[in-house]
Structures are given as structure tokens and as C-alpha cells.
Specification:
462 residues; 39% helix; seven-stranded mixed β-sheet
């Protein structure tokens, strides 16, 4: 029996459109299994565990993490970001991944009363909202809209200024719940961003905006927490350029700018921390990452209670990743395997978007950069089309899973209509098979066409 897709209107889609029986997932932000390096991880584990001198990796690790990995990460980041001064291993703290580390940053460097607000560049990585809420910031997360350069700095400064006025009126001038400790500082504000290949918008924050953001953070005693997890997944945005090894960062990280701008940080803790992860470049199951900040901040992070109790949260796997780095297996995997693979996926999806979605009036707000990267494409629907309705119809009618824009709003902040994203969609090209990406975009186009036709019919009847 031929499968027929039933539309909401009660009519049937043509049989030619009924090829939606194979589900397609353009939502899940995970690497496709074919992009994981199990053999390389296995070889690294064999090398580490076969050497009796490495028996320490089976025990509790040092607070700051596996020392050899910290040293290798410092060298590796030097090669990729090329800061003015070499990165010392003292600036590195090994973590259990970017999400776990964000929670530790908040536990150590914020007070849920004294720290006024969490400012999140929106659209935002929405799963971070619960991490902030768990640390006491319910109803104090504030959306900062993106602009063409990655963040609306005027909007942010107005918000910071108003927040400081409220704190002064409430006599909120010192930490309320956390007593002073010699290894930490309590910040007045947290600013959260994914400045390079942002999730979900794909934008790259400009260099001038990064510098101005550091100035604002210093002025208002804010800690900028950046998820720098997509930086190495980059390629030429023009498919005609062809594959090219891209082993230099497209932009300095905000933590690098804080280190160098105007003679360096205002105090020993600085105003920026880079949150890194091996989830996107090795495997999510590794649950291993790192943070970089000033040496005082990295040490303070290592003194988080859960880390002090059990030592580094990812000691054994950290030793395997060390072996992959020191043998240059990981660098080869990133630059020779992942970059070309993701470039093919990106260009396959973009070609389909240009062919069947842009003619329908959809737009992509990302600026036209020479470099593309990350996992995601952010689309704005035409007219009054509702993203949530499109998401529901795509799943029901086409077995297509996408994610609608309202998911990426900042939880609890309903003040600004521009940061509710009722007309936006995110597509991910990382998870599903590369050969179905084009078909997924075509299915989305069919849904949008039907929605536009039905909307036009209703308007004419009215």
C-alpha cells in the first residue's frame, strides 16, 4: 500500500510527495556517528593503559586536571589562536565538558543575590537557561539581541546601567550568601555568548564588538563566559574555493582580547573565561573539556567543591585525549577529516536552501562571511508564518524534525518582542546522513508552500 501524507486541511498530499516515510532529523546538534574517531580513541587508550608509568590516570586526578593534557592544550591553542604571548598551562583547567563547566563557573564566581543578572546573547543556546536557573537566576536572565556584528552593545549597556541603579537602590553592594574565599571573586554580572559560529544563528561576532564587550565587562564588573566549542570547525563559505586546511582561528577569542587589551586585565581574575569542549571534535561521550582564563581564575575554578572532593571530573579520558594531541592524531582528525566533512554537509544544505527556500522568501540573517562553520543555519520565515506551526506540520506531514525559533529565547524574558523568534527556524547539518540533507530541505519547502497557500486562501476568503 502506498503511504499517503494527510494534511491538516483534510486533503491528501500527492503520492510523489509521500516519500517522507524515512524520518529526517535536522534538529539534533550531535555529530553523525561516521564523524567519530573510535579507533583513534582506542589506540590512545591502549597507549596510555599499556604503560605502567601511567597508573595514576586510574586514580583521583589533580584539581586542575591531568597535567600533561593541560600542557598540550596550551600548545595546541597557541598554534590555533596565535595570541601575542604564549598560553601557559596555568591558564587551563580541565572540565567535564562545557555544560558541566558552566555550572562550576556559576558555583564559584557568582552569588545568586549579589550577582545582578545573566545577560545572554539571543537567540541563545537554550539549554544553558536551566544551568543558570539552577544557580539561582530564575527571572534574572536577560536577552541581549544580536545585531549584524553579533551583539547589540547599546542594548546591553542600557541594561547594565539600569541594573546597577536598581542594585544601588536596594543597597546590594556586597555578596549576600557567599563569604569571601582566597581563590575566588564574585562578579556583579555574567554575560553569556557563543561568539564564533553561534548556536543557533551561525554568526561571528566582529572584532570591534569583542573589544567593546570587554570594555563593558570591565566597566560593570562582569564575567564574559564564551562557549568556544565550534571555533575549529570552519571552512570557506564559497564552495568554489574548494577544500582548504584551516588551522588558524578566524577571530581572536574574547579571553585573548581580555588578556591583551589596554595592558591586560584590571585584576588578577580578569573579565573573560573561554569554555572549551572535546564533544564536537572528538565525541560527546568523552565528557571532557577545558576552561581558559587568568591563572587566578583557572585556579579558582579548580577549587569548586565538587572538583575538590573528587579531583578533576574527567581524569581517565583526559589522558586518552592527551595522547591524541601529543601524537597529532586529533589535529589530523579535525583539519583533515572533520573540516572537509562538515564543509560538504554545509554546502549541500546551503545549495538546497538557495534552490528551494530562498525563492519562497526565507532569509538568512548571518552576514556574508568568507568563512563558514559550526553546525547550524538560522532562517527567518516570510510574512506572518509561524515557526512553531511550521515545525509541527513538518513533523506530522513530512516526518521531518526541525526546531522552531521560540526555543532559543531567553527563559523568563518576555520584554522584547524581537527576542521571541516566532518567525525563525534552526536547521542542523551535523547529525543526519549527508545524503538526506537536501531532501530534508525540500520537505521543509513543501510544508512552507502548503502553509503559504492555505494562509493566502484564508485571507482571500476573509
Amino acid at each position: 500500500m502506498t503511504r499517503r501524507t494527510i494534511l491538516r486541511s483534510g486533503t491528501s498530499a500527492p503520492d510523489a510527495e509521500a516519500g517522507a516515510s524515512r524520518p529526517i532529523d535536522l534538529f539534533k546538534g550531535w555529530p553523525n556517528p561516521t564523524l567519530l574517531p573510535p579507533q583513534q580513541l582506542n589506540d590512545a587508550a591502549d597507549d596510555i593503559l599499556a604503560d605502567p608509568r601511567n597508573s595514576d590516570v586510574m586514580f583521583y586526578g589533580p584539581d586542575a586536571g591531568y597535567g600533561p593534557l593541560r600542557e598540550e592544550i596550551a600548545k595546541w591553542l597557541d598554534d590555533f589562536y596565535q595570541p601575542r604571548e604564549p598560553i601557559s598551562s596555568g591558564r587551563i583547567c580541565i572540565s567535564g565538558g562545557a555544560s558541566q563547566n558552566l555550572a562550576c563557573i556559576l558555583q564559584t564566581f557568582t552569588d545568586p543575590i549579589y550577582t545582578r543578572n545573566v545577560w545572554m546573547v539571543a537567540p541563545t543556546y537554550y539549554l544553558a537557561c536551566r544551568i543558570f536557573a539552577d544557580s539561582g537566576f530564575d527571572n534574572r536572565m536577560k536577552a541581549v539581541p544580536e545585531d549584524a556584528e553579533g551583539i547589540d552593545l547599546d542594548y546591553l549597556e542600557r541594561g547594565l546601567r539600569q541594573s546597577e541603579k536598581r542594585a544601588l537602590a536596594e543597597n546590594n553592594t556586597s555578596p549576600k550568601l557567599k563569604s569571601p574565599k582566597p581563590w575566588r571573586k564574585i562578579y556583579k554580572h555574567i554575560i553569556y555568548a557563543v561568539p564564533t559560529f553561534a548556536n543557533p544563528s551561525g554568526r561571528i561576532m566582529s572584532l570591534s564588538h569583542r573589544r567593546k564587550l570587554v570594555h563593558l565587562a570591565r566597566q560593570y564588573d562582569a564575567l564574559i563566559v564564551t562557549d568556544d566549542v565550534y571555533d575549529m570547525l570552519q571552512w570557506p563559505s564559497d564552495p568554489k574555493v574548494g577544500p582548504r586546511r584551516m588551522d588558524r582561528a578566524v577571530m581572536p577569542r574574547i579571553v585573548d582580547i581580555d588578556r591583551e587589551l589596554d595592558g591586560g586585565p584590571k585584576d588578577e581574575y580578569g573579565n573573560a573565561v573561554s569554555n572549551g569542549s572535546f564533544s564536537k571534535i572528538v565525541a560527546p561521550g568523552c565528557r571532557t573539556g577545558w576552561a581558559e582564563g587568568t591563572e587566578a581564575l583557572a585556579y579558582g575554578l579548580s577549587q569548586t567543591g565538587s572538583t575538590r572532593s573528587g579531583g578533576s571530573p574527567s581524569h581517565l579520558v583526559a589522558s586518552f585525549i592527551y595522547q591524541m594531541l601529543t601524537s597529532r592524531t586529533l589535529q589530523h582528525h579535525i583539519f583533515e577529516e572533520l573540516q572537509p566533512a562538515y564543509a560538504r554537509r554545509y554546502h549541500r544544505m546551503m545549495r538546497a536552501i538557495e534552490d528551494v527556500l530562498l525563492p519562497l522568501g526565507l532569509t538568512m540573517p548571518q552576514p556574508n562571511n568568507e568563512i563558514a562553520g559550526g553546525y547550524f543555519v538560522w532562517l527567518t520565515l516570510p510574512g506572518s508564518l509561524n515557526a512553531t506551526k511550521i515545525y509541527e506540520r513538518a513533523l506530522e506531514e513530512e516526518s521531518l524534525t526541525i526546531i522552531s525559533g521560540p526555543k532559543f529565547k531567553v527563559e523568563g524574558d518576555e520584554e522584547n518582542a524581537a527576542t521571541q523568534f516566532e518567525n525563525e527556524l534552526r536547521l542542523c547539518y551535523a547529525w543526519d546522513d549527508v545524503d538526506v540533507l537536501e531532501e530534508g530541505v525540500k520537505r521543509l519547502a513543501r510544508v512552507i508552500k502548503r502553509e503559504m497557500t492555505e494562509s493566502a486562501k484564508k485571507c482571500n476568503e476573509a
